[in-house]
Amino acid sequence: MLGDRRRSHFISMTAANVGLIIVGSWISIPFFPVPITLQTLFVLLAGAMMGRYGAIPPALYVLMGAMNLPVFHNGTAGIGILLGPTGGYILGFIPGALVAGLAYEHRSGVWRGVGMVAGDLVILACGTAWLCMTAGLSLWAAFLLGFLPFMAGDLLKACAAFSIARRIDALRGGRPGGREKSEERKEG
How many structural domains compose the chain? Predict the structure, then answer.
């Protein structure tokens, strides 16, 4: 590991993104059936900053919470949270970050923006499906309780993540992970 800059960069980006997701869980507004947090912003940002590997920070976050580390909303933890009404949203962070990350590997701003919104919709869809199963709601009732009320706020968070990622991207040379063009030539 000593001297391997790419691996060190990857590990530090992963740790930073896990930390941001945890911080986002503490910024919480009580709401029914699940609280509103800033986690979605940081999950989408992880996808934008790390590309397809952006699914790793949310996966580690879920693993930490499942191991009873108090990282979920307002310091909660454990399998009980994952099996409760918020579990679908939390587990949806993983495919949501992956979708955003895959889209963010394209250079087109349109692809990247659509990827942020699609990643957000994946998170909401996972949460809504989980609400159907855990709360015994019909799909329509789960949509009205667990999808629709969060749409405006989550789209705002997706736009914020896109804007932040664009600024960071400009500093890193235009690619997720900050790879320089000279590094790409060496690899390819």
Answer: 1
pLDDT digits (tens, 9 = 90+) for 135-175: 888 999 999 988 999 999 999 999 999 999 999 888 877 55
Whether 184 maps to a domain, the answer reads no
Query: pLDDT tens digits for 88-134?
Result: 999 999 999 999 999 988 888 899 999 999 999 999 999 999 999 98
Q: How far is CA 186 from CA 38, 82, 122, 141, 177, in A?
A: 38, 43, 35, 53, 16
Residue carrying the six token digits 């955003």? 100
Number of H helices, E strands in the chain: 9, 2
**In 10 A of CB 28, how many CB atoms?**
17
Whichever domain contains 67, its CATH number is: 1.10.1760.20
Percent of the chain with pLDDT over 90: 63
Cα separation values, 127 from 58, 108, 185, Å: 15, 29, 41
Look over the chain and give the mean of its residue pLDDT values, rounded to a whole number: 87
Taking a C-beta distance cutoff of 8 angstroms, is the pair 95, 134 a contact?
Answer: no
Asked if pLDDT for residue 180 goes beyond 50, the answer is no
Quick one: CA torsion of 142, 147, 148, 152, rounded to 10 degrees?
Answer: 170
